[in-house]
Every structure is written in structure tokens, then in C-alpha cells.
Amino acid sequence: FAIGRKERLDRYAKEHGPHWLWFESPLWVHPESRIKAMRCAVVERVASQNDFGLYYIIQGFWKRSGEVTRMPQTGYGAGMQPAPDAASNSYGFTAGPGASVHCGGEGPKLCFRSLLDSGATYPSLYPSDFRALGVYPPFYPAQSLVNILTANGAVTESIYEIHVEVSDEGGQSLVDPVDPINPAFERYIGGLSPVVMLSAEDSPSLNENGWEENLRLSGIMPFLASYVSTTPTKNMMLFGENRNDVLGGHKIPPFRRWMVGLPQDASDRTYWDNFRDPQITFSHRRGLILDQDTGPAISKLTVNVGMGDMERSETFDPRGDFQRKLADGQQGGVNDPTLA
Questions:
Q1: How far apart, in whole angstroms, are the C-alpha atoms of residue 304 and residue 290?
Q2: Minimal CA–CA distance to 239: which of 331, 120, 104, 118?
Q3: pTM of the shown model
Q4: How far does the chain reach from its first CA to its final CA, in angstroms?
Q5: What is the pLDDT, as a whole number, of residue 87?
Q6: Contact at 8 Å (CB) between 63 and 282?
Q7: Sheet holding 281-284, edge to edge
Q8: 3-state secondary structure of 154
Q9: Burial class (CB in 10 A: 0-12, 13-18, 19+), 251
Q10: How far is CA 70 from the centre of its chain?
Q11: CB 322 within 8 A of CB 184
């Protein structure tokens, strides 16, 4: 349904009136394809007594009601005054005549800390997190109910389609808003994603020591949408917009070997600014194939190097391509498929 989403929602609204997106899960899927929840941002390990400390990541979430509904678009919450014949409910929405409720407000953009987990298909949040985002189940329908395979068996949960992006430790986008690597695309790493509402608890609970037990899961998106690198014993994972963000002698030193009992603290990063991002050269087959950075955000792939007429090369320059598109009067705008 992601293909032609807006056109379909508009057409269905014209044919059938205001509506919300709902989709049914397939009746049968291969066991390895079932939705699961098994539990350059620098993501540092959380130390553990057993030396197997885990990683947590910060992700940004944003309600995008325009992607899942076609209804009268109005605001909600603070500053919205109910009409004389309307009733106000405890969730902050304004109910109009006939108890209709408008959920078109964008809501806040919020960040949540989640366990970095490639064994979870989708991100997951608590019901209190959804309410903070402006998603109230009594008035904002889920997009589906799905059967999810967990370590403790299968459960059925509601999922909502929400904008999700990978963020740094401060909750900021990994894409430079002023000088992105690929200006033809939005200034974030991520996109619209199903998000699971955890039904077992309304919000994170506290254990006997007063520590928050955070059951939020990141889902697979950070690994799908980002460049990723990790090195044994450095106790950190790097996520970035481009390969230069996660590579370099200071980020991926050679010949490291992990073993139980080594320190779990993340390596020192205070000197990284002295290195900055590297200019990369990959040499394959004794130099017959070269992948080289020839400038900021420009790379050149050459095959059959030094073999005369057989030598071929291709240059990749997304910033330059974007500017040339604009200079030629072409659209060249955000998410232009010709620039993908």
C-alpha cells in the first residue's frame, strides 16, 4: 500500500468519504518472515556484569496523520476552543457536532531511547509514548492488528504508521540540514514505519532498585536506513548518512579482538575532531578496480585500471547532480526518483 499511498487515500475519500487507513495482515507467511520482537550516531554499550552489555539508540518519532487518513484537518489540544455545541473530552481533542473528533494536528516531534535490536521488525513504544505524540487510541485508529512472535510466544498488538528516524545522542538528525550529502532527499534518515504499541504496560516500570526497565525496541530501521560500522573492543556502533561518517582509522582501527573480561567503557572520542572524515580509496584485485573519493561527497569507480580502451569509470556526485538539475530547470526536488 506504500506505492501510490496518497493517490489511493484521495481516491477512496472521493468515492467513500472520510476514512482511515487499515490493512489486513496476510493469512500465511513463511516463519522466517513473521513480524518479530526478540529484543553518525555514536551508540555506546551499556556495561553489564556478565560482560555482554547491550546497545541503546535514540530515535525520533512524529505523528503523520495525513499519511493514514483523509478527514477534516484541524488542530487539537491547547489553544483550541470548542464550538458552542461541542463537547470537550479529557484527551484534549475537540469533539464537534455528532461527537465527530478531528485528529489532524501534527503533534510534537519526540525522541525515545530504545534497545537497538535487529531481531525486532518494527519499533515499539508504550501507550504513554503514543499519547505524548498526540496519538490517542479512542480517537486515532490503529492501521492494523498484527500477530507478533516474541521470545515468550505470539502476541497480538496494534500498529500505527508513524514517521521514525535515526537520531544522535542529542536527538538531532544525522543529516546536515544545511549541506546534506544528497540534497534530493529529505533531511533525515528513516521514514514512515509501522510502530507497535506495547500493551503489557502503559509506561516503563521501575525495578526494585528504582531503575527504569525500558522495553522499547528500535526495530530493524536503523540498520536498513543508515551506514553502520562497529569494531571489537571499542564498545560503540556508528550510524551515519554516508560511509565517510562511519569509517576512518580512528573509528575502525585494525586487528582488534574481543574477549570476555575486557573493559566495557566506550573508547575515547575527544580527539576525533582532529581526524575529521576520511577520503576513502578502496583498491580491489591489485588495483584493477578502484573506488575513490575525489572530493567532498564525490566518488569515482574505475574498473580495468590502466588497461587502455577497456578502462571504464563512473562518477557519483549527488550534490552536483542536484544543482545541475535545478540549473536545467528540472524539478530535482526532494525524493525525486531520477536522483535516487
A1: 9
A2: 118
A3: 0.76
A4: 21
A5: 39
A6: no
A7: 281-284, 289-295, 298-303, 312-316
A8: strand
A9: buried
A10: 24
A11: yes
Which residues are bridge partners to 121 per DSSP?
Answer: none
Q: Are 169 and 131 in contact (CB under 8 A)?
A: no
* Radius of gyration over every alpha carbon of the chain, rounded to an integer in angstroms: 24
Half-sphere exposure of 92 (CA within 13 A, CB side): 17
- Give 152-191 pLDDT, tens digit per residue: 788 889 999 999 999 988 888 999 888 888 888 888 999 9
DSSP 111-130: EEEEE--TTBSS-EE-HHHH
Decide if 102 contacts 72 (C-beta within 8 A).
Answer: yes
The pLDDT value given to residue 104: 59
CA dist., res. 157 & res. 124, Å (int): 10
Core vs surface per residue 49-87: b (16+ CB within 10 A) or e: eeeeeebbbbbbbbbbbebbbbbeeeebeeeeeeeeebe
State mean pLDDT over 76-83: 36
d(CA 62, CA 340): 24
Cell of 192: 514512515
The pairing of strands 298-303 and 69-70 is unpaired
